[in-house]
# Entry
Amino acid sequence: MPTIDKAIDAWVQRWRQRFDLPLRVVWGTGNADGAPRAWDLGRFDEPKVVITVRDVAALSALLNPSLDSLGEAYVEGHLDVEGDIDDVLAMAHALVRDNAAHAGSTTLLQRVVKGLKHSRKLDREAIQYHYDVSNDFYATWLDPAMVYSCAYFEHGDEDLATAQRKKIDHILTKIRLQPGHTLLDIGCGWGALVLRAAQKFGARCVGITLSQAQYELARQRVADAGLADRIEIRLQDYRDVEGTFDRITSVGMFEHVGLQHLSQYFRIIRDRLAPDGWAMNHGITTTDPADGETPYGGGRFIDKYVFPHGELPHIATVLRTMQEGGLEAFDVENLRRHYARTLTLWSRNFEGQSQRLRGMVPERIWRIWRVYLAGCAWAFEHDQIAVYQVLCRPAGRSAQELPWSRRWIYDAQPGA
# Structure
């Protein structure tokens, strides 16, 4: 197809004038004699990344690149990539940055319209789409406790399992959890936090999730630990919880709430919290002060393929809506560096188990998760997204009840 050859020729020449990339592009259909054509975008002995264009559908993504168009072409099999996943992401970002005018952020009006879509039914379907891939799939690349949120690297050299345990202890120590306290964990995953809270801290726990797969395995893990008398796992929406709890945690869940519903979400936490209680919200945020999506189309890719209806607020929006919901923020900690490290380790685990994972799920799902984990590691490392732990309590209480310093967060022995 000489027209396609000319289009790629022109594209390669344009890029060669701007960059010297160790990237090779192969037109898989090839010439009339059946041999594929190849173009190099830089001067090198061997390319670090090879992109093979399988059909015409991939050309628009390549000629006018954004993270969502390139990601979609890869996920749908219109193009293949060879190379280390970190090099692949570096090449993709080099292409899209120069083409940023074609990958503008979603407007605030679009975000508002999108926020109106949230309902119990849609939120449940979105959660099940993401988390019900299979428990074995997640277990293959997560730590043994299956903690699917940002770990906490106290020194930076911890292995993933140790860092995840330290994250849970960091949260439970922050909320000053004591023996006999009642704890509600919103979005409990596979139960790691409530298991630790009951075993190490002596709490009585309720964990809720909308994922059937998480619900079943979490209940089994609670039973296996002999803690069914102290931990209840429910398949339940946070809006339907009743009663009062001494402590409330929400880890990696509020990204699903929606910008227009954050005040209501925090109000529900306030209504479920005891007057002298503490709550912890641990969640991913955008670094765009206007609550915009991640740049270069990354947010659009995640919304379409990974987290349907997910929305990330800026930390300023979190604090404002938290106050509107009747909660006072007491301690705010940015763990962006920790999540970059966590995702890097997840991505390495994923790459190391690629053959096994490809046998567990359809090729399309494997491609989604491969690019998602590596792409998020890049985004956290480069300040495109962040993650904050916000410790809060009911607003309007006396300042005399507050501790004078935050030393207890770092000096206390977990469970003491």
